[in-house]
Amino acid sequence: MACARGAHPAAEGNFFKMQNLHIPLGRPHTTRPLRRVVWLAALLPIFLVYLGSLWWFTRPDIGNVAPEGTVLIVRLMPSQKYWNDVASVIGELPIVSGHGLSVRSLIPYTHGDLTLFIGEDGRRSAALRTKAGQIPRALLDSQGISVQQAAPDLFLLGDHARPFMPISLSRPSFWLFSFGAHSLGYVHIRLGDTWLSGRLQANASGWQILIPHLPLPSLPWRTLPENTIAAMATPVLTKDFNISGITGRMDALLSHFDIPLISGLTDKLLQNHGLMLITQDNDGLGMLMSGMANQLSTEDQKHILTVASALKNPVGKRWILPDNTSATELNADPSGITIDEKTLFGTTVLQAKARSNETLLIASHDNQYALTNREPLILAWIGGKIDKPMTAGSCRIDNSSYLNLQKLFAVSSPSLQYTQENSMRMLAEQFSEISIRNSFIFSIIQMCF
């Protein structure tokens, strides 16, 4: 039988055999894989250059010029188009303590980064990276700013010449970023003898600092009472962690309550599991403190209630002095104070009422105690539910600590004398709230507008 187009019968049979064996006989298609390889080869140098530049520009050499006593370093190095964001928030901030030179006035002379150093006393100095021929000498001299050259392109600005305190700073991790935010620079925080490095970002809610994940304690509620001024879950990270800007104001507020042993309780709380909460309502300041029950015996609880209530119920006795003037002696007698018991959510609560109609309550529940002057707070603590929670907000959910900065300073300023600049006060002028919380892979310090 003849084969079509003169094909040999044996060849035709071999062709069908190869088809049955699934052996490809057509021309191999290699054009698309080759194109991918070419593109990857072209992009690799660009990626390596990007990593190299990122590594170079984030070098922590700024630690070499830190003044003695520095506890916080804020290194501003946004891309060119985001310097306006920096200026809109902290543009008027004096960059050197006691002088009028502002952040905004130095931005035009900055080539790379502008760094703020904040000391333990809240005083500020700065490092300006710029070309030696472009440093604004006349401007700095007119403000009485001391200039110390630390490197060919790096100058330390302060109220006077200071010795350097070289600090070994780690590079912030590349994975510290969140979507929907843009980078403004880096922050280095002193924790005892070590330094923690994080990324400073801006988003629609405010500014945030992303730091490596820390074992932060959590507040007992996802949201806090709507009238909260300050809340802090304890223990703090380390006994050397400087939170005097927070605890100093809490101590000043707690002193209004005339509660004995209050200083000892707060000292213990900072190192053990517990909670400090301060609120404000129409009747004034409310507070709740909780800690481990083994730190406060039943007798100690009763002692606190009776003495605190007696201090709020002094008995006056009038005296006539030899010069016929009168004086009144106030006597606080705890023996006249009655302690009542009541049951809330199945928990026994001790309470004592002062003549000012303020009630102090204390209870033990789940191996913890709580002391408060507001019954709704003890109910929320025992029941685990807030009656009137805050509205939603970036600073108001799943926190370890929370501060309403403006309310805190409004209620504490009359009892505090500011003899030096304070970083917390500076924050309160720029942001309304600040919170600290954990996410899955890092911890977040959020500063909300």
Report on the structure:
This protein has 449 residues and is an alpha+beta fold. 26% of the residues lie in helices and 30% in strands. The protein has an 18-stranded antiparallel β-sheet, with helices on both faces. It has a two-stranded antiparallel sheet with strand order 12-13. Strand 10 (274-281) and strand 11 form a beta hairpin. Helix 6 (244-254) packs across helix 10 (405-412).
Strand content: 25-35%
Poorly predicted residue ranges: 1-11, 15-19, 47-60, 238-249, 415-420
Q: What structural category characterises the helix and strand content?
A: alpha+beta
Overall morphology: elongated
Quickly count the helices: 11
How many beta-strand runs?
A: 20
Q: What's the number of structural domains?
A: 2
**Biggest sheet record:** 18 strands, antiparallel
End-to-end separation? 92 Å
Question: Roughly how much helix do the residues carry, as a percent range?
Answer: 25-40%
- Overall pLDDT level: 76
Entry keywords:
20 strands, elongated, 2 domains, 449 residues, alpha+beta, 30% strand, two-stranded antiparallel sheet
Write the SSE topology:
Blueprint (H helix, E strand, L loop, with lengths): L8 H12 L10 H27 L12 E7 L6 H8 L12 H4 L7 E6 L4 E6 L7 H6 L3 E6 L2 E5 L23 E10 L2 E9 L3 E7 L15 E7 L9 H11 L7 H10 L2 E8 L2 E9 L5 H14 L3 E6 L5 E6 L8 E5 L2 E7 L5 E7 L2 E5 L2 H9 L17 E4 H8 L10 H8 L2 E6 L3 E7 L1
Antiparallel strand pairs: 1-2, 1-6, 2-3, 3-5, 4-5, 6-7, 7-8, 8-20, 9-10, 9-18, 10-11, 11-17, 12-13, 14-15, 15-16, 16-17, 18-19, 19-20
Helix pairs in contact: 6-10
